[in-house]
Amino acid sequence: MFDSISRNWALFVGILLLMMANGLLVTLLSVRATEIGMSPSAIGLMQAGYPLGALAGCILAPRLIAGIGHVRTFAALGSLCSVTAIVHLLSSDPWTWGAMRLLAGFCFPGLYVVCESWLNAKSENRSRASILSVYFVIQTIGVAVGQALAGASDPTGAVLFGLASILISLSFLPILLSSNPQPDYVPPTRMSLMRLAAVSPTGVMGALLNGVSQAAIYIGLPLHGLALGMTVADATLLVVAATLAGAVSQFPLGWLSDRIDRRIVVAVLSLIGALTSICHVAGLFSDADHLAAAILGAATLPIYSLCVAYANDRLSTAEIVPASGTLVLSLNMGLLAGSFVGPVSIGVGGPSGLFLFLGLTCGATAAVAVSRRLRTAPVTSSGSAQPIAVQGVQTTGSLYPADLPPEL
């Protein structure tokens, strides 16, 4: 494992910088848009551009890599991402910002696919589980640091948007200066959404609903804090608390779901998320918003990884890779809805509107898990749940699960 990490340290640095930039941008845009007077509906429409672009990026980016290679694709998409960060300084028009989010949403998935396919090709089977865990930790640290940076004092936004552009540009260096030959890349085959839904309705519906929740958390929590009158620093710490709590809880929850029916774990977590949201609306978390955000993050953010693991339990080995892209599609459909409805819920219902919306979404997720548990028996044997980084600020690429041979 340590040998694999030492060989790929430059790539890990590049991934860290990318995640810092993406976490900074998604939080900074919500904060900055509020400061310049955008309405919640305008913020939601603007932020919805990212998952909308990602829907196209997930399909087209792999083809681009297959056509011109990893390095050229990374340089081209990275340059466009760097430009999008700067353009936010040149205009305060929500349509322009939305167009930049659309472009960033298209480009970032390609960057992750390059990093992850490169890392996958350079990893040995016996160390893949450890590499995946290191990758997950680096992603989480990057996102949390970026979110925290969004709370820094910057009246004009120039410093932070410029910093995001610099971080993206610096992430090129490990790939562009690497002496290692780029790996071969074959675009993955796809499984239709209807076919996967027939095999694993829980996986598809759970990914969809969790995408709604994740987007609402990552875009809505800073807006919720600002609506309560918090400082920018305190408002951004809400989403940092949710991110870190969700990351920490993934490992024990994954371990638990490997030993009991994963749908039971999903249902219990969703009920905890719904109960937390209801208690917050009822005022039981008065002056403890950060605690509520942490509990909500710990209970909600790991659900996507459990849905992926549950779907994989019901698939053959040859179907896992094609299904992974379909689950990302389902997730992004949820992210698209949550990116818009999350901010709008604050505009309609005030600061508590976000938690009311999250309570409904968590309740719907619990209902899906319970109803499917009552209809179908659990699988007789299951694989291992792997930690998956938060998707509200990124889209997964092609890093294979630890127990899946790379030739698939």
Helix content: over 70%
Low-confidence stretches: 395-408
How big is the Rg? 20 Å
- Strand composition percent: under 5%
How many strands appear in the DSSP assignment?
0
- What global shape is seen? globular
Distance separating the two termini = 22 Å
Helix and strand composition category: mainly alpha
Profile the largest sheet.
none
Order of helices and strands: HHHHHHHHHHHHHHHH
Whole-number mean pLDDT: 85
Number of helices: 16
Features:
single chain; 408 residues; mainly alpha; globular; disordered C terminus
Please provide a written account of the structure.
By secondary structure, the protein is mainly α. The chain is 76% helix and 0% strand. It has 16 helices and no strands. It has helices at 2-7, 9-35, 40-47, 49-68, 70-90, 94-121, 128-149, 158-176, 193-199, 201-227, 232-257, 262-281, 289-300, 303-313, 317-349, 351-375. Helix 2 crosses helix 10 (201-227), helix 5 runs antiparallel to helix 8 and helix 10 packs antiparallel against helix 13. Residues 395-408 have low confidence and may be disordered.
